[in-house]
Structures are given as C-alpha cells and as structure tokens.
Amino acid sequence: MVTIPLLAADNRKRVLVGGWKSKEDLSEPHVTEIGRFAVMSTKKRSKNEFKFKSVEKGKTKVVSSTNYRLILVVKDGKNCYQ
Fold first, then answer.
1. N or C: which end of the chain has fewer CB within 10 A?
2. Hey, how many other C-beta atoms are within 10 angstroms of the C-beta on 32?
3. Is residue 9 part of a domain?
C-alpha cells in the first residue's frame, strides 16, 4: 500500500482568502492609474515635486474589494526613488 500526501497530489494554486498575492501584470491601466493617484496625493500633502515613473512591484488582496500594495518609482527633481 502506498500513501500519497494530499498536498503533494494537488498541484492547483490555492488563493488564501484575504491574503496578499503578487500582481502579475503591472502595466494594466488601472494599476498605473492607482500609482499616479498615490503620487499626486502625496505630492499635495508634502509640497514636493514628485513625478510618477512606473510601478515596480505589486500585490493584491481581495476582501470586500481589491486592495493594492504597490512599490512605485517616482522622480523628485533629478533624483529617482523607489
């Protein structure tokens, strides 16, 4: 008799409800829009000259809506930050 653990036999990806998962397509227009909005909001509060460049990394979490955790690349004058 051979016993195979269930986890080893089940190779489907399971999504942890309420858990963070990597965002694969960071070039989707709504992801870029969220990044631009975050930079614009920060710029207004901090009085800096931040400019949105790109989304470097991202994760999403679905609860009652989709939450995003994004790492952005922004420029402030001559300096570029992540």
1. N
2. 15
3. no
Q: pTM above the 0.90 mark? A: no
The token duo for 80 is 């570029």
- CA dihedral (47, 39, 68, 53) in degrees, to 10, reads -150
Structural domain including 32 reads 22-76
Q: What letter represents residue 44's amino acid?
A: K
Confidence of residue 16 (pLDDT cuts 50, 70, 90): low
Report the alpha-carbon distance of residue 61 to residue 52 in Å, rounded: 23
Report the domain count for the chain: 1
Please check whether residue 64 lies inside any domain of the structure.
yes
26 DSSP 8-state letter: T
